[in-house]
Amino acid sequence: MKTWQDIFAKKIADMGLTEPWTLQKDDTLQVHVLKPGWKEFVQRRALGRFQCSQCFYEWSSAKAHILFHMRRHRGWGMVCMRVFRQACRRCPNPQLEEPEFSLETTERLLHNLVLKILEYCYGVHVQTSKLLEVVVDALVAGPHDSARCEGCQLGICSKAKLATVSDAWKPLKGMDKTSIHRTPRHQNTRPYATPTHHSSTTTTNFPWKRCCWISISLICIFAVVLFSLLHFTIL
Question: Do residues 124 and 118 make contact, with C-beta atoms less than 8 angstroms apart?
């Protein structure tokens, strides 16, 4: 940690910052869990070298991540950092081991950290091109072991985030596919033909008004004839 603090102090001075800044380690830091006034920076894709404390197996990983929380308050600044660990894949009950970084990698990591301090704490516009890429200068064999990576378990690794997003969309895609390709229940059946009743059609077209007028006329004529017969009979 002494090497990190010395390089950090030099980077702060090189950037022209006169306020005192301190760098310390804190293994309790959580991503996106910040106290009021604190800012966060996550450095991804740094080459770290690991060694198992039980079987002494060594391996390298290009996905060693570091979390920084920073704050400027009343003329001084503080940075807390957490390096995420990995476990040995050969031991049945492995412990989480911290990585070691080369001097060049440490220089680049702290250079990017100081640029983020200028941006977050002093309002200096920092172009993305000024951030140094942490070069992977060693051959890394095999895929990243997410099950033994502390960063993946806490959602730091980009691979874990992509998997979470992909799983979240699967039900929606499946639902859309089902609704699109679902066959309607009566799609292939013939339409129901309503039978035609000719009697009802004939009844509907029958001239009711004409029949009524004829009936009334006949009743009137019958009444006149009956009245005449009764009149002559009485006389």
Answer: yes
**61: Cβ–Cβ under 8 A, 6 or more apart, which residues?**
47, 48, 50, 86, 99, 140, 144, 149
For residues 116 and 126, is the Cβ–Cβ distance under 8 A?
A: yes
Q: What are phi and psi for residue 123, nearest 5 degrees?
A: 70, 20
pTM: 0.63
| Rounded distance between C-alpha atoms, residue 55 and residue 52, angstroms | 6
SS (H, E, C) 16-34: CCCCCEEEEECCCCECCEC
Helix, strand or coil, per DSSP, at residue 150 = helix
* 18-29 tens-digit pLDDT: 999 999 999 999
Beta bridge partners of 46: 64
